[in-house]
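Lab notebook, design round three. We kept the backbone fixed and only want residue identities now. Task for the bench partner: fill in a sequence for the structure below.
Input structure tokens:
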């Protein structure tokens, strides 16, 4: 991203080092996700834009185990004390026809795996400890389902080890089935609905807008979208290449959650509170992490963090 000059003066002030601020929310999208089925042990679903979570044995779809990995150690602070909450969120847009949900648990993966080769037959080992539980597959519910993974994220930051997580139903051998359909990381129509990890970290203002992006590819154009902004007001898109921090912007009356922020540009929110900015990612940026946040008068978004591909 190439900085514009419109906000240069906003970032000329001194960084805050001891400010008491609300919790920023950092959004991570998966670096890998896929589901596997016991009745198709050699099947790989890593390139699908739909991911299954739950149990489909009643409909002859098999037991499902779903794997997901995030760049926890590259994009979050190294201290677990900075993390106050973490929620693994998946948008259930469809289900098999059954009322009521069944418990789906999150386990820690303990061996390496790759998105485009993982199958039921070669699935990685996992820890039997259940770190979080939520119900999936209720045909009367379409919307976000959240797993509280605060303790899991803090543990893996402490150990500096993260090989991914697995969704698995409590009972796989008998009983009812409840299968939900979700958007994987390959889903392009609305990136804000992809599987995601939202982590509250110390510093910056609490978000009131939502920021998402379609991709971060070196040498290509990426589109950044903000929702729930103040309609017909200007939205500023800001990024950092050095990580999370705390910096006040008096002109906007906000405190960002970024260290050494730089402007990427700005856009006017439409009447529905949506603002869009498209920017070319420099070809030299491949492999670099980036943290992106949006701000307008009196409001900030979450921080969408990722690594340039």
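Proposed sequence:
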């Amino acid at each position: 991203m190439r900085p514009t000059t419109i906000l240069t003066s906003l970032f000329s002030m001194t960084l805050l080092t001891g400010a008491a601020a609300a919790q920023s929310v950092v959004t991570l999208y998966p670096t890998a996700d896929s589901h596997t089925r016991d009745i198709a042990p050699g099947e790989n679903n890593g390139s699908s834009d739909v991911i299954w979570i739950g149990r489909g044995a009643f409909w002859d779809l098999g037991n499902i185990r779903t794997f997901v990995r995030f760049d926890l150690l590259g994009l979050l602070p190294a201290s677990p004390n900075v993390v106050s909450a973490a929620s693994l969120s998946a948008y259930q847009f469809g289900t098999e026809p059954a009322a009521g949900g069944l418990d789906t648990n999150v386990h820690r993966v303990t061996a390496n795996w790759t998105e485009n080769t993982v199958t039921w037959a070669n699935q990685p080992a996992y820890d039997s400890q259940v770190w979080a539980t939520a119900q999936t597959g209720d045909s009367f519910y379409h919307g976000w389902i959240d797993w509280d993974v605060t303790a899991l994220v803090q543990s893996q930051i402490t150990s500096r080890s993260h090989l991914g997580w697995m969704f698995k139903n409590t009972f796989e051998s008998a009983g009812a089935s409840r299968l939900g359909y979700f958007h994987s990381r390959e889903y392009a129509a609305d990136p804000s609905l992809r599987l995601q990890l939202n982590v509250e970290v110390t510093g910056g203002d609490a978000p009131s807008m939502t920021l998402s992006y379609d991709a971060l590819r070196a040498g290509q154009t990426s589109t950044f979208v903000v929702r729930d902004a103040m309609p017909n007001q200007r939205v500023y898109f800001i990024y950092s290449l050095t990580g999370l921090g705390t910096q006040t912007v008096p002109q906007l009356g906000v405190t960002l959650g970024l260290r050494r922020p730089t402007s990427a540009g700005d856009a006017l929110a439409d009447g529905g509170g949506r603002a869009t900015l498209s920017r070319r990612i420099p070809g030299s940026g491949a492999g670099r992490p980036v943290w992106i946040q949006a701000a307008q008068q009196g409001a900030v978004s979450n921080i969408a963090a990722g690594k340039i591909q």
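Keep this in mind before ordering anything: Residues 31-69+90-196 form one domain.
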